[in-house]
Design a protein that fits this description.
- The structure holds 2 protein chains of 2 kinds.
- By secondary structure, chain A is of the alpha+beta class.
- Chain A has 2 helices and 5 strands; from the N terminus they run E-E-H-H-E-E-E.
- A 5-stranded mixed β-sheet of chain A has the order 2-1-5-3-4, covered by helices on one side.
- Chain A is globular, with a radius of gyration of 13 Å.
- In chain B, about 30% of the residues lie in helices and about 20% in strands.
- In chain B, a hairpin with a 4-residue loop joins strand 7 and strand 8.
- In chain B, helix 1 packs parallel to helix 7.
- Chain B is globular.
- The chains are: A alpha+beta, B alpha/beta.
- The interface between A and B is large, with 25 and 54 residues.
Amino acid sequence: MAIQVRIPTPLRKLTGGAESVSGSGATVAALVQDLETRHPGLKERICDDAGKVRRFVNVYVNGDDIRFLDNLDTPVKDGDEISIVPAIAGGTR
Amino acid sequence: MRDAAVAIVGVGALGCAAAEGLACAGVGRLVLLDGDVVERSNLHRQLLHRDADRGRPKVESAAERLAALAPGCAIDCRAVRVTAENAVDLLADATCIVDATDGFESKFLLNDAAVALGTPLVHAGIVRFLGQLMTIIPGLSACYRCLFVAPPRPGDVPSCQEAGVLGSLAGTIGLLQAAEVLRYLTGSGPLLTDRLLTYDALANRFRHVRLRRNPSCPVCAARLAAAPRNR
């Protein structure tokens, strides 16, 4: 069993249109790195140049915001569900 | 509901749908705020405006259509852009605020103004096939800055103007905003507080993301729990 990662629609062009992808790793940081090897470009949409989660993106492990856990050091395991939630701003004009 | 004054900030795609839903449901007064004029490129998703309205202020065009649909609803038009300088004055009398703006700056500004005023805010954002919706009851539930601390830098996230949006997605989310306001005004049903509703129009899937107040939120952390303003 792998870790399932839900991909929001703005990032799906990096996953070939897949709504959910699999990954592995012991922490969110390792998982993001693994996702980058499978879906190049994904990491830079989630993390900034300093390697931190971008301020307009939130990552959830089984529904819990990693900012209130251990951020990118939050442990993950097979069977966990990760959600990526970006801020979106349209209204529209 | 007849005594309520709902401020709708932005009379674009979300605002048109939300305004129609609220006016037809019997809300007493709507305050429409938008400094833009109608353009042809708006018409596929902003359903209160007509081709003949091109060049007119959106608030006028929308008010005319709403008056025909729901003559019992009083409409106040303010053809102005809500800014940091005028937000508190423009929104001070609102029972509830609908964020139907386009752009991160406006969304953060409205959040901050609503928290400062203690006025409930129904936030929404849309882009391409993705919609998001949440309700903020200042002092009681997570605010938008509890979710996202600060806006992205210009260019980091495409706007609707750049990325496009499915017109029917905008209508769906705008009407959900109206339903949320009606739940608040009538005290019926649970609100979308401390959770973010996301709608994926490609997969046709609604999901909830659990939120919680950020104890170090720069906007609402200092605000003590207080009863929301009168419904």
